[in-house]
Amino acid sequence: MPRPTRPLRKLGFLTIGLFAGDDPRPGHESTLRIIELGERLGFDSVWVRHRHLQYGISSPIAVLAAASQRTRRIELGTAVIPLGWENPLRLAEDLATVDVLSGGRLNPGVSVGPPSHYDQVKGALYPDTADLEDFSHERVRRLVSLVRGEPASAFSGTEGFEVFSGRVQPHSPGLAARLWYGGASLRSARWAGEHGMNFLTSSVVKAEESADFERVQLSHVREFRAHHPDGERARVSQGLVVLPTDTATPEQRAKYAAYAAARLPRTAEPQGPARMLFAPDLVGDSAQLAERLHAHAAFQEIDEVAFALPFTFEHDDYVQILTDMATKLGPALGWRPAGEPG
User: Fold this and answer.
1) Model's pTM, two decimal places?
2) How sure is the predictor about 339, in pLDDT bands with cuts at 50, 70 and 90?
């Protein structure tokens, strides 16, 4: 069996946090319970997706603020916050606040580009500045500089009884080193490396130089590290849909297989004008999954993962998947639960 060049050091998972439109609380509560379970199982990190005007988490920072008070150790990430919807200064304040509340466990992942369905939403989002907004990497650069504590205002000092700071408050000194950029292209990977960020690569990439998903993802990992000050030590997290079935019921196994089969046709070739390339979902027992991952070209060069949970499964399915992931698949990949002696 091919072996990875790096042992798996950090095991995480990602959830979209679906909820019912007419009764949203149970879905949010389920997400928080899943995060608590992840901590008990020894996962290193949990990541939440960001969904605007949909029935998934629209405010991941608020959800992670709640999670920070129900957990003590697990790292809390966003994968990703689309900055086209955000004011970098206000977001920097929110991120720093939650990082302080969590004791320095926040891992904010961000991306750039115009908001989805921008023509339909810009009147509500940017009614006066829609045609002036800059959705380039400059928006990330502004956020990074503000999180690092660079000046946000030319004024500071005391005015009457109020004291003003020239930088974002609260300031969380370690947060800037835990900022991630989610990229699907060589250009994004290069930019993240040049600007000293961490890099999130998911199950979707742009088929620029090849139509082979593994080769494309591997090229992004190498491009990022080639331009990062830390070189081979620069942090990359890989996100794939991985569904272990070791303790699944027959009904769950059939459900997972049908889910993967329904999504498989889109992996055959690049999709749409942007030539987006999707990775196949991986389903099987942990021994089978470990063999497939050890043979995966990009997996062989990373030591952190955040495996994605399917969007539409039930709470009990997530419990089974995460339990198998932590107790069977993780150890098969050489990982040890957080807190377990090395």
Assistant:
1) 0.96
2) confident
Query: For residue 5, is pLDDT > 60?
Result: no
Residues 183-210 pLDDT 10s:
999 999 999 999 999 999 999 999 998 9
Phi and psi for 200 in degrees, rounded to 5?
-105, 125
Please name the residue that has the structure tokens 């690569």. Answer: 201
Distance CA 213, CA 204 (A): 8
Which of 232, 229, 144, 238 has the alpha carbon at shortest distance from 193?
A: 229
**Distance between CA atoms of 21 and 23, rounded to whole angstroms?**
6
Q: Look at residue 341 and tell me if it is in a domain.
A: no
Task: Provide the number of structural domains found in the chain.
Answer: 1
- The rounded mean pLDDT for the chain is 96
User: What CATH number does residue 208 fall under?
Assistant: 3.20.20.30
The CA-based dihedral angle spanning residues 19, 20, 22, 28, taken in that order and rounded to the nearest 10 degrees: -20
Does some domain include residue 268? Answer: yes
pLDDT of amino acid 180: 98
**Of 220, 196, 308, 195, whose CA–CA distance to 259 is shortest?**
308
Which residue has 């997530």 as its token pair?
A: 318
- Residue 48 sits at the vertex; the CA angle it makes with 290 and 188, to the nearest 5 degrees, is 80
Provide the H-helix boundaries in the chain: 25-41, 60-68, 88-102, 118-125, 138-147, 186-194, 213-227, 250-263, 286-294, 315-324, 330-332
pLDDT at 342 over 60: no
98 domain-assigned: yes
Range of the domain at 173: 10-153+164-332
Question: How far lies 93's CA from each of 19, 172, 175, 263, in Å?
Answer: 27, 10, 11, 39
Q: Is residue 247 part of a domain?
A: yes
In angstroms, the Cα distances linking 122 to 114, 118, 129, 132 are 10, 5, 9, 11
The answer on pLDDT for 167 being more than 70 is yes
Residue 1: what pLDDT?
42
Q: How far is CA 120 from the centre of its chain?
A: 26
